[in-house]
Design a protein that fits this description.
The protein is α/β, with parallel strands linked by helices. The chain has a domain of about 160 residues: Rossmann fold (3-Layer(aba) Sandwich). It contains ten helices and seven strands. The protein has a seven-stranded mixed sheet with strand order 1-3-2-4-5-6-7, with helices on both faces. Helix 2 crosses helix 3. The N and C termini lie far apart (about 35 Å).
Length: about 260
């Protein structure tokens, strides 16, 4: 049974509506983590970043039980909106969703010309031998900052400073992430299916990421025919937040080429 995405999902968007569309997909931290990506792309593209169902207080359909199902729902939504020539840009779990969308689109003629480029920013989802994904659900706030940021002090959020509402949203987001991505945040089949991806792909990685290491990122890029890999110095799992100028340089060069 296909998932019907709610029509009223909150969306961050910017840029000329008539220009090329960039679908920006957030990770576990929610849409605020990709807002700078939307802002940066707005000069040349119509960038949209929907809130995934179940994040930030939005309802999650009972049928939303995997990244594959969420990816299929986003593909359907793009078709419904008569989109074409879409650039997918995903961060963390969003990178996984983007790669899953590209892998699914190859096998259905309805999606021909729908997706024409993919940018995966420190995406999880694949299982790479010898490079395990950090156990996100076992990390406290301090350990998460140490794993995800080049400068952990920039990423550390003291739980004692959260309001009850913020804490409730954070906990609900974690439950949704576990339901959709699984506690391993991976799909055993994904790496093998990436060989079918037939659109230009850029894999961007923070050199200090310890959620998924640059070696993991290179393995993902190697699995995608013709994919480019860009390592961002002095950045962790969210290089667009920690080293934006270097991240924009890599993304802009790629988009100019494609």
């Amino acid at each position: 049974m296909p998932i019907a995405l709610p029509e009223d999902l909150p969306v961050i968007q910017a840029g000329p509506p008539a220009s090329r569309t960039a679908l920006v997909l957030h990770g576990g931290g929610g849409p605020r983590t990709v807002a700078p990506v939307v802002e940066h792309l707005a000069a040349t593209m119509h960038a949209i970043a929907p809130t995934h169902p179940g994040w930030d207080g939005t309802p999650r359909p009972d049928s939303l039980t995997s990244v594959a199902r969420l990816a299929a729902a986003y593909l359907t939504r793009l078709l419904e909106h008569k989109e074409h020539d879409v650039v997918l840009i995903g961060s963390s779990i969003g990178g996984w969703i983007a790669l899953e969308m590209a892998a699914q689109a190859v096998h259905d003629q309805r999606y021909a010309g729908l997706i024409t480029a993919v940018i995966d920013i420190d995406g999880v989802g694949a299982e790479v031998e010898g490079e395990p994904i950090a156990d996100f659900f076992a990390l406290d706030a301090r350990a998460l900052a140490e794993a995800a940021w080049h400068d952990p002090e920039r990423g550390y959020i003291d739980p004692a400073g959260l309001t009850d509402e913020q804490r409730a949203i954070q906990q609900a987001n974690a439950r949704t992430m576990a339901a959709v991505a699984g506690t391993s945040m991976s799909d055993l089949t994904l790496l093998g299916r990436l060989g079918a991806v037939n659109v230009p792909t850029l894999v961007v990685w923070g050199e200090s990421d310890r959620i998924v290491t640059p070696t993991y990122g290179r393995a993902v890029a190697h699995a995608i025919p013709g994919a480019q890999f860009a390592e961002i110095p002095k950045a962790g799992h969210l290089p667009h937040l920690e080293a934006p100028n270097a991240t924009w340089a890599a993304i802009d060069t790629f988009l100019t080429q494609h």
